[in-house]
Amino acid sequence: MHFHRRLFRSLAVFAVLTALASPGMAQDWRQYRNERFGFTLEYPADVFVTERAAEAGDGQVFGSSDDEARLLVGALPNDSGYNPVSYQQYIARYSYSGYQIDYRQTGGSWFALSGEGEGKIFYEKVMFTCGGRLINSFAMIYPSARRQVFDPIVERIEDSFRPATDCQRAGLAPLPIGVAPNARPVHRARPLHGERSALADRIARARGHDVIVIMRRATPPYDRKVLRGYAYRR
Predict the structure, then answer these.
(1) In angstroms, rounded to a whole number, what is the distance separating the alpha carbons of residues 162 and 181?
(2) Neighbour-count burial of 12, counting CB atoms closer than 10 A to its CB (0-12 exposed, 13-18 middle, 19+ buried)
(3) Where do the structural domains in the chain lie, given as residue ranges?
């Protein structure tokens, strides 16, 4: 009889601990909205707290209260002309070189990437908008041992993720009529046009070759100006 009581108490304690470590721990879901670009997602505020925000206002980092997981959200202009395939390859090589990639999915204007390494799992979702000129993304890194807790959280964040579609708000020129904000991006190696400037010419002469200089305003409306500089032409 005493044995059964002890067993019952042990099972009850185990059930409580399991409940605390289950996906149900994420109850306080709130919306994060980026004021600069306008993309949104939902995140569990009882799991993640704000760790730091980018000074430029283009993203934010959240950390779990136990410091074991990170959630990173942000957006950036696609100045290098990436498309989903080329950008997926780029971050796989330079952001997640220490991971074994085991999941890749690519669509016309998005991709997802995931892998595992050194006891951690990462998952990143990237969406291109404004005709491919704006890259929106979120990424989560968490311990492999706690995937049963964090995998469902990743799924809900992904379901709630809405990229920015107001191109002018993002400091980009309006899209041509008939081009959707989430249209498939067109890859280009670099900007094709730009006015000549004395500043760009000086940079070109210093480097010994022609250059293209992209200047971006550090304050709203964050617009850009493309300048061409020539090293030897007059």
Answers:
(1) 12
(2) exposed
(3) 27-160, 195-229
